[in-house]
């Protein structure tokens, strides 16, 4: 485990902090309208997790249709949203787990297991969306999956990393709690050279 200054016990807040960062990125992905956008001018298409909007080349107003009318749209939104809700629960559990004086490491490992479930749900939503969107929605011009979709993947990658750390943290229980005694090295007098 990486040593963190004077005491690793202070480092315990890094994992909940990373989960908080994953929540922020998840909120941006859920609220952002940049899941799919036109790559170059004229910008005639943009989509979020919830709707797809198009406009004519000379038109200033967007015409939007809900993706919740499609089964795959509901599936992508539901799986990503379920993963996000479990992520918020994991964040709350992590704050509770690291706030108590005596850290329950089996509890921490359970949070890691839940984070793998979060990652699975989010990955399912993030894979369903582009595959079915490209099949079902007529696209005009060059389009790209954009910044909000990227935030969804970034949140998922952070969750996967945190899941591994939460699952492996009990292996370094003594280091985290500061129970390691210092190691002293003794050299015998006959091997030590003296200055006269």
SSE blueprint:
Layout lengths: L13 H18 L4 E3 L6 E3 L3 E4 L8 E4 L4 H29 L5 H32 L6 E3 L1 H22 L4 H5 L19
Antiparallel strand pairs: 1-2, 1-5, 2-3, 3-4
Helix pairs in contact: 1-2, 1-4, 2-3, 3-4
What do these coordinates show?
It is found in: Cell junction, Desmosome; Cell membrane; Cytoplasm. Its main location: other. Keywords: Apoptosis, Cell adhesion, Cell junction, Cell membrane, Cytoplasm, Membrane, Transmembrane, Transmembrane helix. The chain crosses the membrane at residues 12-32, 77-98, 110-131, 151-172. By secondary structure, the chain is α+β, with helices and mostly antiparallel strands. The chain has a single domain, classed as Butyryl-CoA Dehydrogenase, subunit A, domain 3 (Up-down Bundle), CATH 1.20.140.150. Helices cover 54% and strands 9% of the residues. It has 5 helices and 5 strands; from the N terminus they run αββββααβαα. The chain has helices spanning 14-31, 71-99, 105-136, 147-168, 173-177; strands at 36-38, 45-47, 51-54, 63-66, 143-145. The chain has a 5-stranded antiparallel sheet with strand order 4-3-2-1-5. The longest helix has 32 residues, at 105-136. The chain is elongated. 27% of the residues are buried. The model is unreliable at 1-7 (pLDDT under 50).
């Amino acid at each position: 485990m990486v040593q963190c200054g004077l005491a690793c016990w202070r480092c315990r807040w890094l994992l909940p902090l990373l989960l908080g960062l994953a929540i922020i990125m998840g909120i941006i992905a859920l609220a952002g309208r940049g899941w799919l956008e036109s790559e170059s001018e004229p910008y005639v298409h943009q989509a979020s997790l919830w709707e797809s909007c198009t406009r004519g080349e000379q038109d200033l107003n967007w015409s939007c249709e809900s993706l919740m009318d499609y089964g795959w749209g509901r599936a992508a939104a539901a799986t990503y949203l379920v993963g996000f809700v479990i992520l918020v629960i994991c964040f709350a559990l992590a704050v509770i787990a690291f706030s108590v004086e005596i850290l329950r490491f089996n509890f921490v490992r359970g949070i890691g297991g839940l984070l793998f479930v979060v990652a699975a749900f989010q990955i399912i939503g993030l894979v369903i969306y582009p595959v079915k969107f490209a099949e079902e929605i007529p696209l005009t011009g060059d389009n790209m999956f954009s910044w909000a979709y990227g935030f969804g993947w970034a949140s998922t990658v952070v969750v996967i990393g945190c899941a591994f750390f939460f699952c492996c943290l009990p292996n370094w229980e003594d280091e985290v709690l500061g129970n390691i005694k210092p190691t002293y090295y003794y050299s015998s007098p006959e091997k030590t050279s003296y200055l006269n």
